[in-house]
Design goal:
Layout (H helix, E strand, L loop, with lengths): L13 E6 L27 H11 L6 E7 L1 H6 L3 H55 L8 H30 L1 H9 L4 E6 L10
Parallel strand pairs: 1-2, 2-3
């Protein structure tokens, strides 16, 4: 079911260009500094993270093409690199999805377990507060100390509810990221020589 609050975005094809000094940087941080002419928006982490971010920014794109620019000698040394890169992206997406499913299922199970106790605690705290507000005393106790204790009990009740409901919210919020990773194996991948690969790194 489509989220009615989600605005329909641009459905034009999305092309993502990555300039890497090595294909290993697709799944590992390149370790470049801004002094290096090769430093760019995708240099803050593994290239695949930049790809996922671009796909999340344009979730309604009709198709996605990834163009990886590499030094010409790296492409010449590995003629099958494009095929192996596609296979690596598929394995990465499948592994991420499986690990994420496991983590989310554990989180939801824990949240459901905690939520039952939290709701009972919240209901008990609310009933005690209402009884104190009505009678002016609780179990024969009254005064400022009792006011402070019940205020603290009320705060504790809300805090107890926060964690399980936050887990449910994160489960919903992670929907976009999960959809992106499930779509990742289907993107088109093309490797091409980088015309600017002959740069000089500055220490």
């Amino acid at each position: 079911m489509r989220n009615p609050l989600r605005r329909r975005g641009d459905r034009r094809p999305l092309t993502i260009t990555l300039r890497l000094t090595s294909i290993a940087e697709l799944f590992a941080a390149p370790g470049l500094s801004p002094f290096d002419p090769a430093f760019g928006p995708a240099s803050f982490g593994p290239g695949i993270d930049y790809v996922v971010g671009e796909m999340q920014r344009c979730p309604d794109a009709s198709s996605v093409e990834l163009i990886v620019l590499l030094p010409a000698d790296a492409l010449a040394a590995a003629p099958d690199l494009e095929t192996r890169t596609r296979e690596a992206i598929v394995r990465y997406a499948q592994a991420w999805t499986a690990a994420n499913d496991q983590q989310r299922e554990v989180g939801i199970r824990q949240a459901r377990t905690v939520a039952g106790s939290a709701i009972l605690f919240f209901a008990a705290a609310t009933l005690l507060s209402l009884q104190y507000a009505r009678d002016g005393s609780l179990l024969g106790l009254e005064g400022d100390v009792m006011d402070v204790l019940l205020d603290g009990l009320g705060v504790g009740a809300w805090v107890a509810l926060w964690w399980p409901f936050d887990q449910f919210f994160q489960h919903w919020q992670g929907g976009l990221e999960e959809r992106t990773y499930r779509r990742l194996p289907g993107i088109a991948v093309r490797l091409a020589p980088d015309p600017e690969s002959a740069h000089t790194a500055i220490p």
